Each structure stands twice: as structure tokens, then as C-alpha cells.
Amino acid sequence: MTFAADLSTEILRHLSSTQDASGYDELRFGKMKLKRRIENGINRLARRTGRSWLRTASISHFLEQLEGEDEKLSALYEALADDASKELLLRLFAYRALGFQHVRLPLATEEYRRKRKQLGKLFTGEEIRDIPSLGMQLRRCRLHELGAPIEMFGLLAGLECVFSVKQYEYEGEHGRLAAGAGDVVIDAGGCWGDTALYFADRVGPEGHVFVFEFIPSNLTILRENLALNPELEGRIQVVDRPVWDQSGVELSFEDKGPASRVSLDSSPERDGVTQTLSIDDLVAQEKLERVDFIKMDVEGAEPWALRGARETIRRFRPTLAISVYHSIGDFGEVYRIIADICPEYRFTLGHATMHQEETVLFAEAR
User: Fold this and answer.
1) What does pTM read for this prediction?
2) Using CA atoms, how far apart are residues 346 and 363, in angstroms rounded to an integer?
3) 268-282 tens-digit pLDDT
4) CA atoms within 13 A on the CB side of 331
5) 160-365, CATH topology level
6) Out of 76, 277, 298, 330, which could bridge 335 as a Cys pair, Cβ 3.0 to 4.6 Å?
7) Which of 343, 291, 290 is nearest to 321 (CA)?
8) Where are the domains of the chain?
9) What is the DSSP letter of 80?
10) End-to-end CA distance of the chain
11) Where are the alpha helices (DSSP H) in 67-193?
12) What gap in Å lies between CA 337 and CA 309, rounded to an integer?
């Protein structure tokens, strides 16, 4: 079977089913709006009456996004090293085609919701930090009950992915992938410091974490969170530049917290400008003798960041955990770049939410 045939089968399998609203993530997207509630009602009616115009429109939009991506996506599908990863890729794409009304992702369970409620109790509510650009507040929480000796300001959705679901770990038939004791980790896209602290705890006193983060408002919270954890802070070095394929490139940026993006476009709507630093140049500047683990979540800039890490990947063959959910094109493009740099990598796929965000492509040198 081919990727096209398997995906067609997967979409058809879900097309005739209608899920209830429990697959909708209110924590991430807020209360369901009238338009979405009406869509749900139409979907249920369409199933009973045999009409499918709404679903056809959704699939057509999805197929437009696949235009020109078939070869790279087929190559990724064939390269995935276990059945669980292949099945997850098909399920994720069926979800993108049909939505939560028809497709349940693996975490859309009562057990997941129960754990989320328990995690919510870790937020003390006594202290908050305002994020005016996002119109939201971060609350202080203690993560000790999750096995992480960490206290920080954050959002439930983000901390859930990192510390409860363990977004940057993978366990499958070929073993477990995760940062370990003594590792040197590069954390590209640090935001408020949750992943940097997670990795610092994982690598222990003999390890070290380099975290790329340059958005001013993110840096303010990140540095405060590091200061709240003095034992871990000494293992973390902040790199206040955006990661890119070359150093010294001037980029403009939008300050949107975890959704901040960089661009070569200097339109007046941007919030500021900054200069890039590649991972290869960071490794050279710091005279690093090894890099063991690279994580990236840089809002669609992952292909550029990977191209700027070619020599590091070839030389050290670190485990990679690269976000691919920002666009359908990223799935195949990120795979292609890594495979071109180092053909010996083994690929698996992980996902950390009940919606389409937070998919991570893992690559392990064989």
C-alpha cells in the first residue's frame, strides 16, 4: 500500500462517523462558538440524511494543502520506523481533513481530561504575570507532583504538553528517546522557559542546556522562571537570538508569546528587528565537543534552523525532536532536510494534544 491509498482509506473510515463535542479542546480554543456548534449539528444531520457537502468542502481544503507535497509526504510515511508512527500520521491528517467532529486523536479520552484537572490543581493562583500582547495571564505553579522539582509561571496547556504528556520523549518498539543525564541539549524556541527547565532537570548537574529565545516579553518571564529554580538555572545558558540557517541575518518579528514568528519582511506591523545565530555558529563559538539532543519549536522556522545545524548534526548525530505541526508542508520538508543531512537517522512521530498542534518528528541516529 502507498501513503495516498492508506490516507484515503483512513479518511473514508472516519467520514461516516460523527463524534460528540468531547473531542473539542476548550482549554486551547475557548468555549465553542455558535458557528462551530451549528457545524456539529449539520454534520450529525448529514450523516443521517446521507448528505455530505460540508465534509466534502472540508476535504477539498485539506487536499489543496497537500498540493505539491505528495513525494515528500510519501517518503516520510515510508521512512517512519514503526506502525504506531504511521498510524498516527494517518490519523493526524484525517483529523486535519475532517476535524474533531469525525476524528478522535489518541489523547481525546476521559483519562486525559482527568489528568488535566489534576494538573490544574498545581497552580496556586496566588501570583500571576500579565502578558498584554496576548491578553492572558500566567500563573505560578509547582510541578513537584509530576516528578519535576520545578516552580514557574506558565499556562496549563503548555505545561501539560511538556511535563505530563512528555512531548519531547518518545517510547516505541525501538526503545526510548529522551534527553538524559549529562547531555548537552539545544532548546530552540524557549518561550517562557518550560522546556529549558524540563531539559535542565533531565540532564542533571553534569549536563547543559542552551536555550534560544529573543522575544523581549518572553525573555522577561523566562529569566524570572529560571531565577525561581536556582539549582537548575546554572545548567542553562540563554541565547537571545533567533535561530536560522545563517548568522547575522536581520529579521523582523511579531511578539505573540509562544506564537511569535520571525520574517524577512520588514512591514510596519512588526514589533521589532533582530539578528540571527545558527546552531553551527553557536557550537563553534562555545567550542562544544558534543551535542546530544536538539529540540525545535520555532513557529515554522524549523527548516531554516535545521539547515543552520548541518555540521552539528553530521558531526555529533544528536537525537532530534523537531516540531512539524505548523503546516502540512513542514512534515515532509523537515524529514527531507534531516534525511539529506544524515541518511542514517531513524524516524518516529509523536503528538501531545487532542487537537492538531504539537506534533513532533523524532530522529535517532542508528
Assistant:
1) 0.92
2) 5
3) 667 889 999 999 999
4) 33
5) Rossmann fold (3.40.50)
6) 76
7) 291
8) 3-98, 160-365
9) B
10) 26
11) 70-79, 83-98, 110-120, 156-159
12) 11
